[in-house]
Amino acid sequence: MNLVEIKDLRRQFVQKNGLFGKVAKVNAVNDVSLNVVHGEVLALVGESGSGKSTMGRLVAQLDRPTSGEIRYRGESVTSFTKQQLLQFRRRVQMIFQDPFSSLNPHMRVRAMLAEPLHIHGLAGSRQKVGARVEQLMAAVGLSPTLADRFPHEFSGGQRQRLSIARALAVEPEFIVADEAVSALDVSTQAQVVNLLSKLRRDFKLTVLFISHNLAVVQNVADRVAVLYLGRVLELAPTEELFRRPLHPYTRALLSAIPVPDPTLRRQRIVLRGEIPSPMRPPTGCVFRTRCPHALAECATAVPPLRQLADGHFSACIRDDLMVEARPDTAPQTTTADRVIS
């Protein structure tokens, strides 16, 4: 069953530049259609500026789409009333990239974890609130004796655990994790990813996992959507995507995953140039200006996201490139991945 359905989603920002206020339109998310199945982890991957975080904020209704529709359990969230939106935000919570800026530095942990309980009318007596705070801290691997400390008294990994505890406070069923481990060192990343995997099982969560770290995604996601300049270029089950990437952009991303064995070499696909400005995206296929296989036809029309295998979609007109990946190019896991797994 689809928990979240996204159809033709678009988010456009208007930016004024220069002395005379020249208006430029930025297409952060452009005609994205995706479904998130109940109980799965769907990963959004891509370079910085691809629209991943904007997608997460739109799904969590921290930002409003310019057009398109987001449905949650069959209901259109873009037309929710204020009361309905409050109920929606109890079921959908977000974990941000930087826990230091997302946690209130003036609130002790106890008050910070109790606040969502009061907002959503789940507080009860003081004893019940205290017990719930202790339960949440224990669930994320922190001692309840630390509940009277301020966020700055914790390490980066501990602060991210507090962010996870705060997201779990109101018992959500859907979590948007926006680069939840990217600001952490490798060993702490492994601990937090393991924690998210455990909590997903224990609390039966559905997760939208936003990351640029494909090595981590390989170990946590059920399906992967590859974004570039606000468009989905490939969508597939994780194992299938890493075994047989179809889109040239996905192949380039996978070729950049570090190989921990110095005796092994992978053929690196180096993309020329930088990702174009979303204010002036290329015509036709948005990836064509950096694609080593681009044809003249790639500039004339936007390629649709087509299903080319069971559950495997790609937005590329070069069907001749879609061949089985060679075994020697299969992605290797890093040392951190072995810790995670």
Structure report:
The protein has 341 residues and is an alpha/beta fold. The protein has one domain: Rossmann fold. The chain contains 11 helices and 12 strands. The chain has helices spanning 52-59, 82-91, 99-102, 109-119, 126-139, 156-168, 186-203, 214-220, 238-243, 248-255, 335-340; strands spanning 2-17, 22-37, 41-45, 67-72, 75-76, 92-95, 174-178, 206-210, 223-228, 231-237, 306-309, 312-314. Strand 1 (2-17) and strand 2 (22-37) form a beta hairpin. Helix 4 (109-119) crosses helix 5 (126-139).
What features would you highlight for this structure?
single chain; 341 residues; alpha/beta; Rossmann fold; four-stranded antiparallel sheet
Summarize the structure.
31% of the residues lie in helices and 23% in strands.
- What's the CATH first level? Alpha Beta
Question: Would you tell me the overall average pLDDT?
Answer: 87
Shape: globular
CATH architecture: 3-Layer(aba) Sandwich
Count of discrete domains: 1
The name of the CATH superfamily reads P-loop containing nucleotide triphosphate hydrolases
Which helices and strands, and how do they pair?
Blueprint: E1 2-17, E2 22-37, E3 41-45, H1 52-59, E4 67-72, E5 75-76, H2 82-91, E6 92-95, H3 99-102, H4 109-119, H5 126-139, H6 156-168, E7 174-178, H7 186-203, E8 206-210, H8 214-220, E9 223-228, E10 231-237, H9 238-243, H10 248-255, E11 306-309, E12 312-314, H11 335-340
Parallel strand pairs: 3-8, 3-9, 6-7, 7-8
Antiparallel strand pairs: 1-2, 1-4, 4-5, 9-10, 10-12, 11-12
Helix pairs in contact: 4-5, 6-7
